[in-house]
Amino acid sequence: MKKSDIIKLLILIIAVSLNVKTMKSMHANQAEINPDRAKISGKPVASFHKFWADVKWMMFIQHMGSIDLTTESNSKDLYQEAKDILDLDPGFYKVYELSALMLSAKTPDLAIDLLKRGQETHQNKNDWRLYSMAGNIRHQETFFNKKVNKREKLREAIGFYRLALKKPGVMPVLEKTYIKTRAQEAHEANNDVPLVIAELLEWDKYVNTKMAGSEYGMEGEGGDMFLSLEENTKKDILSLIQRVKREHQNNLAGKKTSKAMLASLFKGIHTCNSCYNEYGAGHKFCTDCSKPVKVYGICPNSQCRKTHSNGKFCEHCGTNVKPKKKKK
Amino acid sequence: MDETFAIASSLWKRLLGVRVVYFLTICAVSLIAITNMYDILMIGESRALMVDTGMMLTTIAAMLTVISLAFDIPKELQSGIASVLLAKPLGRTHYLMGKLIGVSWVGIFITSLISIGFVVIYSMSHGAPPAGLVKALFLIVISVIPMASIVLFFSSFLNEAVAATISTVFIWVGYSLASLNGVTLFDLSLFSMGAEAFYNYEIPPSYLLKGVVSALLTAISIVCVTSFIFNKRDLQ
């Protein structure tokens, strides 16, 4: 063997061993950078998995567009096509969203299967929409499919909503859906409890646990996961309390919960004792039930007696409307 | 070393002197630009299509460029040009290295042209490109080196058609190796980070460095093996 050949052989051995090490390290890096790589199918399409997924996505859209009425048979075809795309690109959010919507009517289990798959991907695991959509599909089954076990489906929906509410950027409206579904489940479990009362009780539990900062999954590792109660939600709770007062006057649980919630959640507002309708400054009678209400917001100056805007001084006469109490 | 670069620059001049190269480059960039019109057909996912098409066309351009070597070396061997060149004080290993460097330059130049076109189009349609996209393109550009070395290997002992076909299959398999459960000796999938670029995953600079090192080590090891075979060959 020539000297130059020995040198080449040595270089070859060193280069190969170093390269194997480098490549192994790069493989490890790839898995760290994008954990979804492990979920990509083993189809030998060179490095064109994502491009192929795009092409299949366009074909999938064409197929969906050609369907007049979803049946179990074409739903299964769509499911298979969606799965094929996701094998190539597990992070493709639109595929989860659209295929789940298409499949939810006839084959909700297949739709849930796809959404669960999406929830397991690194790319979409924090996308609350996938969880909310799964909850909606289970929830809608209780309306459209009379054969299903309603409580079971409702419990599943509640589970999905709870997970959705833990995710960042979740829309506050989902809180309402979550509570309504919980109330529906409670109502299914005990038909003696009217749905409205069940909803109020659930809100009460929800608000209390939220204030205590535990259970319901509302507390998160990060502060942004903790949802604050929106003004619109508060308004909804107040109208629920009013409804309970109107429709279930004699329900003790309803009465007790309404009073407790008014005392805790609606401290700053004035409500009619008779119908719990909110009234404004200067009102003498409730605009909803015509009963007299406790007047507030009137200037104490006997020559003025006009409604002020709750500042420190009356805007009409300058009288101090919030005099400091004298220290004894 | 001067002889090696003389061989490399001769290949560079010959390949880049062909006008169809620029025409194909313009076609590739135009195709990338056209994907912007697919927004409705893709239901708002035209950015995905643009990124994936850009990555794919850049990779294919790299493949096609290096495959040209599979025609160049056997042709020179058959016509006797190689024998004339090797009759001069030029080692066979230098000849091979010259060819590898030459085709790698051309490949890097063409893929860089397409990459620049792609980045400009992306910026015009979707705003500033993410850093990951530029890094992923850099990896494709670098992948020209191991691709060229495998073509060099086959073209050193096979005829044009067979060398080109087997090289194409090898490169294709090289890109699919990760999905075929990771044989790590010739794994081009390490240079394919299109999905990571699209989903804005952070590609660390150390990964790029490892990519360059791996590309060079692959080329060195393949050139060593090729040199063994080529030196044993009886050239007329």
Summarize the entry for a quick read.
The complex is a heterodimer of chains A (328) and B (236). Chain A has 328 residues and is an all-alpha fold.
Could you characterize the architecture of this molecule?
The complex is a heterodimer of chains A (328) and B (236). With 328 residues, chain A is an all-alpha fold. Chain A has a domain at 282-322. Chain A is built from eleven helices and no strands. In chain A, α2 packs antiparallel against α3, α6 packs antiparallel against α7 (150-166) and α10 packs antiparallel against α11. The radius of gyration of chain A is 31 Å and the shape is elongated. The N and C termini of chain A lie far apart (112 Å). Chain B has 236 residues and is mainly α. Chain B has one domain (2-231). In chain B, 77% of the residues lie in helices and 0% in strands. In chain B, α3 (46-79) runs parallel beside α6. The chains are: A mainly alpha (328), B mainly alpha (236).
Keywords summarizing the entry:
heterodimer; A: 328 residues; mainly alpha; 11 helices; 58% helix; B: 236 residues; 10 helices; 77% helix; 0% strand; elongated
